[in-house]
Amino acid sequence: MKADIPIPYSRALVTGGAGFIGSHLTQALCERGCRVVVLDNFSSGNRSNLAGFDDDIEIVDGDIRDLSLLESAADGCEAVFHQAAVVSVPQTVEDPVGSALVNETGTLHVLEAARRAGAARVVIASSSAVYGDDPHVPKRESMPVRPMSPYAVHKAVGEQHADVYHRLYGLETVSLRYFNVYGPRQDPGSPYSGVISIFLSRAAAGLRPVIFGDGKQYRDFIYVSDVVKANLLAAATTAAAGGRFNIGTGEITRIRELWDRIAELAGTGLEPEFQAPRAGDIVASVADIDRARSVLGFSPRTTFSTGLRKTWQWFAEAGQERGRHADSH
Ligand code: UD1
To answer: HSE on the CB side for 60, CA within 13 Å?
Structure first.
């Protein structure tokens, strides 16, 4: 059993536990001796993400829109990690009402189910999207939220619900604002998937990538196992209750440089194709992680080179054995 970050809970619920981040988190909790209930509707999650450790978990095939199902899934759980969401920004733009039922009402259901179940703590996945296109960098938690999409509104509202549950009911809620998360099990299947998963799958297939704009725009890419550690620390740190934390690395990578590094890993000389910038694309995004460092004791461990290499290995082995090759934490 892993003892680096001890988890003071014997049973936890992970919503979206079969998804990209949720499955890594579920695996890490199992490795620390915590019994996990995974609630997932398998709309973007996949059972193959749980291969190898599904004996240690209970899977509830269902939806966070169903409060009574959530209530029974949360029964006996001391901690809840809320990862389920409509994660595609464009999907929330196309369907602002339907996605709000999942992202906003669903988050409220998770908080309410946790309260009724008598859980101590709820850690919710928020997003750097709440900062919108504010050009000031690095992003600090004290900056005002400026949602630019339904997705960002959902995440900002979810944080506010979490704050209210903390203040009104004493539920220990923590919101984690993820920056650009990457790693094994990230699905490259949609044009709106994370840029790293898209570039790696293009490289693996020997295809040129598309760079939107001049490629000088930059992001703060964080490896999934560091995001998992942030969740474990958020669950285990008493002083985190009621807080909001940026979860990034504080380092930047420009999109053009990203492709050059991937091309080198893949041993390809393919040049990117440049297209017009995406509407609403943010030029600069990087986290100030001082608050997470000082309150949670969080510090990202995986360098970008290591994370990219591990993720490339996973993509290169892609296909039939996906999931089984993912890292343990
Ligand atoms: C990410 C999140 C989004 C969140 C936002 C907050 C993902 C998938 N999306 O969006 O949920 O609202 O942060 O800041 O993590 N790009 C290319 N070619 C491609 C794909 C992307 O050049 O084939 C560029 C994009 O134009 C963008 C950059 O790569 O400049 C990153 O794109 P993407 O991975 O989609 O993430 P964000 O737009 O940062």
So the answer is: 22
pTM: 0.95
pLDDT digits (tens, 9 = 90+) for 17-74: 999 999 999 999 999 999 999 999 999 999 999 999 888 899 999 999 999 999 999 9
Residue nearest to atom 1 of ligand 1 (CA): 180
CA distances (Å), origin 329, targets 32, 47, 223, 299, 301: 10, 19, 11, 15, 11
Which residue has a Cα nearest atom 21 of ligand 1?
195
* Ligand 1 atom with least separation from CA of 202: 23
Looking at ligand 1, which residue's alpha carbon is closest to its atom 38?
Answer: 281
Residue type, 17: G
Of 161, 200, 196, which is closest to residue 179 (Cα–Cα)?
Answer: 196
The residue whose CA is least distant from atom 14 of ligand 1 is 129
**96-138 pLDDT tens trace:** 999 999 999 999 999 999 999 999 999 999 999 999 988 899 9
CA of 207 to the centre of ligand 1 (A): 19
Q: Ligand 1: residues whose CB is within 6 Å?
A: 89, 127-129, 151, 180, 193-195, 198, 209-212, 217, 219, 255, 278, 281-282, 285
Class of domain 11-182+221-250+285-301: alpha beta
Instruction: Specify whether the CB–CB gap between 25 and 84 falls below 8 A.
Output: no
- pLDDT per residue over 165-188, tens digit each? 999 999 999 999 999 999 999 989
How is the chain split into domains, by residue range? Answer: 11-182+221-250+285-301
Determine how many CB atoms are found less than 10 A away from the CB of residue 278: 12
Report the side by side order of strands in the sheet with 57-61: 57-61, 35-40, 11-15, 79-82, 121-127, 172-178, 243-247
From 180, 197, 221, 275, mutation site for ligand 1 pocket: most ligand atoms within 8 A of C-beta: 180
Please answer whether residues 42 and 87 qualify as being in contact, where contact means their C-beta atoms are separated by less than 8 angstroms: no
Does the annotation mark 9 as catalytic?
A: no
